[in-house]
Amino acid sequence: MKIEFFGKIREKTGKSGARQTRREGFIPAILYGPGYEPLPIKVEKKQAEKIIKQLHAHNVMGDLILSSDDKEERIKVILKDIQFDEITDEILHLDFYRVRMDKPIAIKVPINLVGESEGVKKGGILEHELREIEIEVLPANIPEKIDVDISNLDIGDSMLVKDIKVEKGIKILEDENKVVVSILAPKVEEEEEEKKEEEVEAEPEVISEEKSKEKEEEKKEEKE
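The structure assignment produced for this chain is given below.
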């Protein structure tokens, strides 16, 4: 999918400026990056909404065509953040990160679980704990997602960050001991284990009651 945002330099900033920008059919945004001053811009709303609806995540790379004084500049950017209205779900603001194609960048990408684990086939419960992973990679090689094969995971197994295989040129920045996914025991088995534990705990009480009865009977016999 071709990702292009069309924008202009935004002259009016602040809350009133942002409201006016939205009334004009644009989305307020900011363009920033190493070696550049943050630049307030505005992007065409309809085009931006159409693209964002098709994206699976933020942190995707595309082109920002920035128009100013009858000139156009094509800038490689990463859409770093999208701010939505909590009630209407309208896009309120966008953050664009200006990238250098020859410098690796740190970025978070989604983790995509592949396959059906052996544990799930047996009735286990899949718990997906880490859904995004931070990596360092050249902008041109940013993957849409990191695939993680869980086919061999059985009940009680977990996969850690250090178990993930990535392509050459991608460096994982996340803590290697973080749990990515676990296969938990079915609830039925857990309940059965709890019942067994309760029964084991109750047994000494039964035994102690029987012993006390025996002692009482012995005392009666001695008195007789």
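Interim note for the steering committee: The chain has a mean pLDDT of 86. The CA atoms of residues 128 and 181 lie 5 Å apart.
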